[in-house]
Amino acid sequence: MSIEKNDVAMRKTLYLLFILCLPALQNLNAQSFTLEDCLHMTLEKNAQVKEAKLGEEVALQIKKQALTYFFPNVSLLGFGFQASNPMMNIDLGMLGNMALLKNGILASAVAVQPIFYGGKILYGNKLAKTGILASKLFTAMKEEEVLLQTEEYYWLLYSLYEKRNTVLSMKQVLDTLSKDVQQAYKAGLLGQNEVWKVQLQKNTLETKGVELEHGIFLATMALGRQIGLPVDSLEHIRVMFPEGLTVTNPMELYIEPASVIPLRTEYKLLQVGVHAAKLERKMETSSYLPSLGVGAVYYYENFLDKDQWNGAVMASVNVPITDWARGSFTIKQKKIEEDRARIREEDGRQQLLMQIQQAWGSYVEAYQKYELAELAVLASEENVRTSEQYFKAGTVNLTELLAARGGLQQSRDTKTDALKDYQLAKSTYLQVTGRYFIKDLPGTQQTF
């Protein structure tokens, strides 16, 4: 009797929760999201993607700044003074003294055009351009990362919803079985213990349902944050799942690992790193080469109470000599950094090959596990069917029937998880082989 009271209390609690949540559930019809919708919203509104794109803007501003060094450097100078006493006195003998420079004004404009600075300006602009390419590749890598995370949340929700459907269907079957057991108990065919066994499994399903609802709530919040929606407005999120999902043999998507390495964003970043190290070495070398610049100056001065206008052209040549001694060591350091970048590139290539092989193994494993889970469901369904027949015939007791139904629920949940793992393994394999949401990025095909 205590079990029945607990069951009634639990049903009342769930009913109140349903009534309280009904307005939010009704609002779920406001907008629906498919997997494609979630992925596109991730690219548009995800916080990490937005931050990465701001990094692109920073790199663009650095490039614009580097371009300004190609243009003349123009400066204006203004100078004036008023002395309490003349700054210069000239003794003219019988003519007396002549006071000079009590006040004065000087204004000038100077323009200097760099002609050759050892290639430093040229390499600086190339390095800035390389920075833009690196930031774009970093953004692309971040996009791939968050898209996979979005898929994880999406398929997690799928598995939770499928498990909830399984629980609901099992509840309906148990409700029917509970009525049959109650009638058999009243007729004296079954004991009170059998009634409690059914009630206990119903309570277990109720607990499982509460856990699933909580999991759905948390997963929905995580997906909402991932696609850029406020986590406190879950009423705007209704996830739509595809019907009739098919599981295909991984061999249909197999590709030779070495052939797709150039497609990987990570490998392109490693190549950019080598190119940047090479440019930095050239920039450092250019610092110790002769530099040449030309310029012009035009000025106005009035120091002797007379306006004076004048102009001049000039040229400058700077040949560093003593700097070469210590500069040679700095250049060697840059060369070592370039060698390190090349080592990282090759090591990164090997790691990417390992990652592809691992992703392929996980993909095949997920496919095989799904096939086994599908067979397990068929076997469990057949076990339940025969158990029900034998139970009605009196050759199988209630405990065995309940165990068969519990096994069916477990096998269905295992199949659901296997399908989720298969979808994620497939997406991961496509990503590591450079075929997951590939976009044409300006400059990503550039050869160095």
What's the overall average pLDDT, rounded? 84
CATH level-two architecture:
Up-down Bundle
- State the end-to-end CA separation: 80 Å
Reported by name, the CATH topology is Outer membrane efflux proteins (OEP)
Report strand order across the widest sheet: 1-4-5-6
How are the secondary structure elements laid out?
Blueprint: H1 2-27, H2 35-45, H3 47-67, E1 73-82, E2 88-91, E3 97-100, E4 103-116, H4 120-186, H5 192-226, H6 257-260, H7 265-286, E5 291-302, E6 308-318, H8 323-393, H9 398-432
Antiparallel strand pairs: 1-4, 2-3, 4-5, 5-6
Helix pairs in contact: 1-5, 2-4, 3-4, 4-5, 4-7, 4-9, 7-8, 8-9
Descriptive report:
The chain is of the alpha+beta class. The chain has a single domain (31-432), classed as Up-down Bundle (Outer membrane efflux proteins (OEP)), CATH 1.20.1600.10. Helices cover 65% and strands 12% of the residues. It has 9 helices and 6 strands, in the order H-H-H-E-E-E-E-H-H-H-H-E-E-H-H. It has helices spanning 2-27, 35-45, 47-67, 120-186, 192-226, 257-260, 265-286, 323-393, 398-432; strands at residues 73-82, 88-91, 97-100, 103-116, 291-302, 308-318. The strands form 2 sheets. It has a 4-stranded antiparallel beta sheet with strand order 1-4-5-6, with no helix packed on it. Strands 2-3 form a two-stranded antiparallel ribbon. A hairpin with a 5-residue loop joins strand 5 (291-302) and strand 6 (308-318). Helix 1 packs parallel to helix 5 and helix 7 runs antiparallel to helix 8 (323-393).
